[in-house]
User: Fold these one by one.
Assistant:
Number 1:
Amino acid sequence: MSSWKPLDKMTILSHYYPRIEGPEKVSGIARYTYDLQLPGMLYGGILTSNVAAGKIVKVDTTRAKQVPGVRVVLTDIHPTGTIRFAGEEIAAVAATTPQALEEALRNISVEIEKNAFVVSTEDAMKPTAPRVFADRENVRKPRVREEGDVEDAFRKADVVVEAEFRTATQVHACLEVHGSVVHWEGDELIIYDSTQAVHGVRKDVASFLDISPRKVRTVCVHMGGGFGSKLRGGRYTAIAAKLAKAANAPVKLMLTRRQDFESVGNRPDSIQKIKIGATKDGRLIAMDAVSYGSGGISGGARVRLPHVYKIPNWRYVHHDVYTNAGPARPFRAPGSPQAAFSMDQLMDMVAEKLNMDPLELRLKNDPNPTRQKEWRLGAQKIGWQNRNRKPGSDAGPVKRGIGMAASVWMTGGRDTKAMLRIYPDGHVEVRCGTQDIGTGTRTYVASVTAEELGIPLKKVIPLIGDSDYPYSGASGGSTTAPSVAPAIKNTADKAREALTELISDKLGVDADEIQWKNNSIRVQNKTLSWEEACAFIEDEPIEVHGKWTEGLSSAGVAGVQFAQVAVDTETGQIQVERVVAVHDCGLILNRLTTESQINGGIIQGISYALLEERWMDPTTGTMVNANFQNYKIVGSRETPEIEVILYDEAERGVIGIGEPPTIPTAGAIANAVYNAIGVRLFTLPMTPDRVLEALSQQRS
Amino acid sequence: MFPAPFEYHRANSLEEALELLARFEGDAKLLAGGHSLIPTMKLRLNTPAHVIDIRNIPGFAEIRRSGDQLIIGGGTPHAAIEKSAEVQRSASALAHAAAVIGDPQVRNMGTIGGSLAHAEPAADYPAAVLAYDAQIVAVSAEGERTIPAGEFFVDLFTTALEEGEIIKEIRFPVDGDTVRSAYLKFPHPASRFAVVGCAVRLTMDGNTCTDARVAFTGVAATAFRDEGVEQDLIGKTLDDAAIKAAAQQAAENDELEFMEDHFASEAYRKHLAKVYAERAICTALGR
């Protein structure tokens, strides 16, 4: 087993340093898939269904083909001809200009034999609801998990709290829509894709097109957001490839914003009915939970219950519900923000019933030793002792409160390979088939190399985002850092060995007489600089291959967040004023990008808590707010003061932090709202009218 | 998204613009700031064969004072109104309304004439224009006419303007020493349009209100003056209780065609109208 050098010996890792491609990104030089222009490139687009259910009867492309500039029209792109949600692909066009493309798509006439449809989860659960799949019921067979004796535990409970929670469907809403630029070189397909998985796209698109993955190469240099929605190859990429083949020209096919909102993923909604039992000294002993949720035509709506607290007896029954809406995809900590919203509110409800400090209740029931420390740190930082002791007791219409919630995430590292070359001028090139989805991967590919070889960061050229590079998996599940960083370290270690061997050969000394100090090499009483050492390399660069190894990473992180809100009880507006976040992720590769990940998770969490909700029109079956004019995401104006406290556990090695920070935010805000106004919000997002409705129910 | 093909014309005078409008007989649209027109053209809700650009007409974006009137040219951008010392001095509520429209880009491009002619039910100006009893001066090939603000807004996206007319200017009475005015809104979190916007213009004799204009936008199909609130203010000494009582009258007129959407129900809009009436009155009075 290998290990990282001690923290006090590290000169780059675990420090604050800017991301390598930062200047490119802020100056607009960075080219995303959306920006690419290839010579002779055509513009591709897809006509998607605006009908939620039906059978394609006829697609007439006569007029579309007559639009000047149109090169290809395809109508055989839907696999079955049966439409199950608004947003399914019907036809595709490639044209010389975006204008001609739009005109042609507008001139395709489609005849669909419409079927009855259902777009709301609750409606779909009714026995009379139209079936999404003819051969299956909308409510799927429940999945039951159970531990201990739930009924017996409830009999022994001194207090029981019970509530029903609802969370809305959230769309990924990546700033860069899904899409690809493709071109064929003979029978080889090159895909520039906005993706979280260059190797995965190669495999999936090869399979869609029934060609060998050997013939497919995927490139993604910069990408504008994925959050789990870009983990697989897209059908749109295969469609682009077919258009490009037929036109014998490169094709750029980016989805429209509406298509991106409707067709390529979401975080499913949830209806959670949960009952908790505790003893009078504040030990949780029982949970009984039932949930329903819809991932549209897919599953994936399960909530990660029972969340972080130790409950010896629990039962959780989940039902996925089919609706005529776009399929779910993994979305930054799937199932977890939903669980923190319900369970951390139930914790506060139990505490209130026991007349116990919610912090104390958590310390009693949280089995994680790291989080025990994080709770105390966060409470101190936010000023938990100064909170409203009596919820809603502030004078005046604007009332303030503080609340907290917990985070947990369990994944670690896995197979990743890398290749490294040292050139005679001292430059080091590292190739790894991972990709940077905005988390700072490219930067730590360079910094791990620089740290291990004892050279400046600028000597290292990190090359990632290409399926021709050694294998690495998808950037998902917060697995990237614990997968990639160990592989890079292993490869850099091998490079150092190879350089040592070369010097030993050239100077005719034993390898063990060559000693590596920081930034220099001692041999025969002489000190060689890195450049002098590399000068021994002649024509052929040193080339080594390395891979992920045990001992450099681990799995499982904790985390807590505290939110302070101000609620205007006249308008119902919630303003998040401050968030304190305490998170751990083992050895922190880069404090700056780690803090950015946590900031981003919290911002997305606030958005989920207060704003984001997909609205489906029950009469047309389409999404009403499939645009940023009506689907609001938190921007800089709504972003509060965020204080990040990084809890170091360097001895555990590298662990991912992409997902955990978005988990507790909505739960912490909900508890803060209760602390502010004395009324609990059970539905996400906590919009002003819902706040007012809750307040008026309390009055009556 | 691209608009349908159209022919672009640049008018260098109001006369030229009117002549072009007459020539194309209803198949032309006027382009001022373009912030409402261009999106509707891109969505193909509007497919005019001709677009007449009136942004470069000399003198069309002027703000001037004439006696006790403040006259604002139809082509004046929101940012110019927001920043004008003259508007801030003599029509505070109008300056407040201009300052909260959209974002800086919108305010730099969009114009008051364009916004009023578009008659978006959640736009900010209509409330201010009503609270001032402003006069909208429309010009056509036949000459000029003045439309009182109270008659201007007919329905959703529908005004009293006739085919072939252009808003030349809007005339506001200036706030005298005894007048207190303000505009406040609750913006939609995404679009920044008014979920509820309230303009008030109060004439005060000491602490007693001798005249009141209270107008709302965003609440109903058109902006409207709320006489319920106004009548409850006039003649009263405006202490906290009187203001609160008057504000409770807001949006109680059942003949209003209330707006409702996913973000804000009818009941929520009515509630906000009362809250914003109170807040706008307090802001106007400097409380």
Note: The first helix of chain B runs from residue 14 to 24.
Number 2:
Amino acid sequence: MALDKYGIAKRIAQEFKSDLYVNLGIGIPTLVPNFIKPGLRLFVQSENGLLGMGPYPTEDEVDPDLINAGKETVTILPGGSFFDSVESFGMIRSGRIDVTVLGAMEVSETGDLANWKIPNKMVKGMGGAMDLVAGAKFIIVAMQHTDPQGRSKLKSRCSLPLTGLHCVNKIVSDLACIEITDQGFLLLERAPGVSVEEIKQKTEGKLIVPDFVPEMKL
Amino acid sequence: MVRIYPDGDAAVADIQDNATIMSGGFGLCGIPENSIKALVKRNIKNLTIISNNAGVNGHGVGLLLEQKMIKKIIGSYVGENTLFEQQLLAGLIDVELIPQGTLATRIQMAAMGIPAFFCLAGYGTEIAIGKEVRTFNGKSYLMEHALHADFSLVKAWRGDTAGNLVFKKTTRNFSVAMAKAAQVTIAEVEELVEAGAIDPDTVDVPGIYVSRIYQGKDYEKKIENLKIRQQNQVV
């Protein structure tokens, strides 16, 4: 069965080792901390000016002066710090962020990412996504394998305006975990109960299928 | 040198049509509530607003949109404001979208007197169109220019009569750089104190950058996305 958003977040959480600085985008990426193995030393950065982001506040802790990049009320953990946007993107640009997780509308087999604009339809802006994909060391995309019409979002080339060029390292979709290699999409794992055949059929770009493709262990 | 003003109305009284104005804040966090409300009363036109976001309907920069005072918005994410989208699709307003870190740093370069810098964000995308590309150590970068403004409206937690500003938590965002990047910086503070009452070690924006300061009032501090965890809930 295909993964729901919690399943995708759970699989992404397995990518996290100890001693990482991570930045999480809006949507499914926000769910990832719920599934991170306890005891890992991890600092979550929020690009509006916060390192060491904690969980949502209790009712008593709510502070309008303390939000994350999704404009949600949050808390700060011991060892955290506040800073301005210039400093925040300095950290991102200079390669201090080990992992960033973000959503995608399309990813190409060469790792191009499109996630900020649909011409003549949606004009919301790129926010910090272009900076993050240009600066972070490892980029994981959380996405649905196909759009609501069933068309593949893993393309040979992106049709939508790009957020970044050759930047995506790994994709966790509702169907599969895939690594971007110089040769194309390398199928690493299937979602529980999903066949290699289905993944092949729903991947438009070049898919490399090893002889054995294990199921995800969630 | 900084002058103390009685209120927002007095502080923005000389802003005219066609002005370029920076407005601090991230979403609705740390926005200059008093200065924006005072600006709405001035009912001037054709403003260019530099702000990371476009506010929401009824709040922040959204109030200027309601009065149709804005000609152009320069920002990175304007998705929260439906009125903005309507005005954009109707051709009433222009928008320039800039990657968030590039926007912050373009403002910072104006604050530091540096005309341009080279930046990786957006290389290979449509925002690179028309920009000079230079290669350093085998990587290609876009040339980005400093972003200046006539006025900058910011809100700090505390300020003193020498113009020094102290911010709280995540309200620093774009405000710290904007406070230094315009010809005239108008700072409103939750608490205005005498020079000497702020520990110099804690100053975020030194007074030399601030032109006008006043104590704001009736802060709403509206929360865009209120999230609460239950007591004892493990996250």
Note: The domain at 5-32+88-208 of chain A is CATH 3.40.1080.10 (Glutaconate Coenzyme A-transferase).
